[in-house]
Amino acid sequence: MTSLAVALSAARPPAREVWVYDPDSVPEHRRRFIPRYGDDQWSLLALTKNPSQANDILHWSWFSDTYRETFRHAAWALIHHPLPDVHIAKHGAPMRAKLSTGRILKTVNQWSVFAEWLEKQGVTHLAAVTVEDLTEFAYYLSKIKGRSRNTVCSYLLALSRLHYYGDPHLPPADRLMEPPWISEGQDDYLPAASSRGENVAEPITPATMGPLLVWALRFVELFSSDLLAAHAERRRLHIRAQELDVPITPGCDAGLQAFLADLEFKGASVPVADWNPRTPLAPAALFLSAKTGTPVKKIHQVMRKPHWRAYIKDHHEPATLDTPVTARLGGQPWHESFEFYRSSTLIKHLVTACFIAISYLTGMRTGEVLALETGCCPDSGADQAAAKRHLIFGPVIEDGTNGEDDDEGGDPAMVHGRQFKRARDEDGNHDSAGAVRAPWIAVPQVVNAVRVLEALGPGDGLLFAAEVHDPRLPECRSSRSLAHATMANRMTSFIEWVNTYAEALGRSSEIIPPDPHGPVGAGRFRRTLAWHIARRPGGLVALAVQYGHMRTLISEGYAARSRGGIRDLLDFETARTVAENLSNINEAMHGGEGVSGPAARRLIHASVTEHQRFGGMIATTRQARSLLADPTLNVFENEEAFLLCNYDREKALCHPSRGGSDEAPSLGRCRSRCVNIARTDHHADRMMAAAENLRTQAASPLLPEPLAERLRAKAEHLEELAVQHQAGRITLEDGQYT
């Protein structure tokens, strides 16, 4: 066979039997995915160390006979040869010396579009392409196909890369001339820029996210002990049946015969495998094998006899496990006895629930969750403060240290997880193994989900290992996690199961409604958590801490928003919240509700202005910027203090300097004397309700008197504020607006 070194040193195509990747550079468990140069398909899985990476495949059927071998050779060069720095410098950050598997797939696919277009123009080899052809192709992408600016830019970058590989690695006929945008710049070849960022995924609506999280946590914290016990019993029965998979010998069915005779004597039912109702009734062979100590082959042999066929027809029941159902929902057992053949479906739903809990309650990206390993969340020890928070660590680093800094003695604060989105090696290329990140802070519910997954696994390896949770063709899926698409499908199944279950129990109010923005995809949890955190007082700081970025740097690492970053995202959500609040206030005031406080008239003016300009709806980034740029509309609600802040930086007591550049109030530092405060009738009603609740607590004989006195004082203060509101409230007409 032609050696890899010789093939790489030649400017001619390698022999068809040459391995596309050097087997010595690929982990042994992935070598079976290495294609040969002449194969019709090239799997890229052997190039990546990301456990959740999909098996991207280059299909050479994308190219016609005219260009197939040309671009096969170019793809070989793309995989094996990094670009020199002199070429990378011409393009800046978008150009990398080597590409990730996903980008390789995308680049070759873009080449196939270019090759198809060339054939339609009558161009049969790359050396014949002219400047006019390249200019026309850019026009074709933007004007004829209507591709976005970013997409066209990606195509032009792919053609630039094809040109760079020409001289050193491809024969003369396959060398593309220098595209004009390399020397002239790309702007003249791109469509106009759009204000719309790449990340257009909507957060999951609260009406959907709320019940989804409730049911996920029910599985993790309420149902999991029963399901883990059922899983353990089912696994024991499987192992026992496998041990009995031996040649049939005389008398090996003694246990089965005794079991069946006892059933017939009592008129009892035979356990059957009813998991597939479209097939005739069949005995639960594995189940009976483990229960009676009989080989599976012998069970099939005995149960095919006419006598037992006739008996099963009238006497059958599901094969049920002995595991008791201990958890209760609404005072009743949450499930009937677990069935041997159906309990695996419930385990899948349990794994899905764990994924939902971890994804949503931490803000991890999907790939980061799927890359977690057993031991990623060590016990916090006896520290009571630490018991309320936990650190989530990533996969073990290959040197076996799990990221410990030897100089620090293994301090847990020095252990980092891994992120894949912007992982770069020392040369600035994508690192498929991921990059160390600061530990995630996790609430106890996340820890419980991790513990459940650890209990389901073999004791080491990935928490979402494919060979454990999706054991189809396990030899092909070793060291891989469940795929992104698999988790998306399982969430759909989870929601369907929950809704059917809730309907059957008469809990229609707890059904998970469909999200108006589409399926609940795995990638939307991070977006949803960011949305909820950002809308809370101090939310921007909390979000920066949890997602591992300072606010000025977040655009580098969240949601791939290349222009605005998360700052634009959060500004958009801030504007949407302000618009919704002001529109609600305007509607309430038209219904006769009043407002009070030093900023009452400013609040009325803001609500009317917002309603006239936006109507409570912020649909574009431009509208968001316009609203936030108007200082009269900077109104923020502080639910904890029962007030609205009509923010004026120069008057704000929460910022003593008042001369800085604070763009939002510090709602955790509201002062009752601040002239930015306004309250509505709704706030007054809530203050009276809160005061009543405090007085009820103070009346408890179990409460120490000093604490009861403080609660009564707080209640009196709230009642005074409510009375002051009623005395000083003004309405829409009083505010001189109609």
Brief overview:
The protein has helices at 4-9, 68-80, 85-88, 101-120, 131-144, 149-164, 166-169, 180-184, 206-243, 254-266, 285-292, 296-303, 306-314, 343-362, 366-370, 444-456, 466-469, 484-504, 524-534, 539-547, 565-590, 600-613, 621-629, 681-698, 705-728; strands at 41-43, 57-59, 270-272, 316-318, 328-329, 332-333, 390-392, 417-419, 435-437, 440-442, 595-596, 635-638, 643-646, 677-680. It has 738 residues and is mainly alpha-helical.
Summarize the topology.
Blueprint: H1 4-9, E1 41-43, E2 57-59, H2 68-80, H3 85-88, H4 101-120, H5 131-144, H6 149-164, H7 166-169, H8 180-184, H9 206-243, H10 254-266, E3 270-272, H11 285-292, H12 296-303, H13 306-314, E4 316-318, E5 328-329, E6 332-333, H14 343-362, H15 366-370, E7 390-392, E8 417-419, E9 435-437, E10 440-442, H16 444-456, H17 466-469, H18 484-504, H19 524-534, H20 539-547, H21 565-590, E11 595-596, H22 600-613, H23 621-629, E12 635-638, E13 643-646, E14 677-680, H24 681-698, H25 705-728
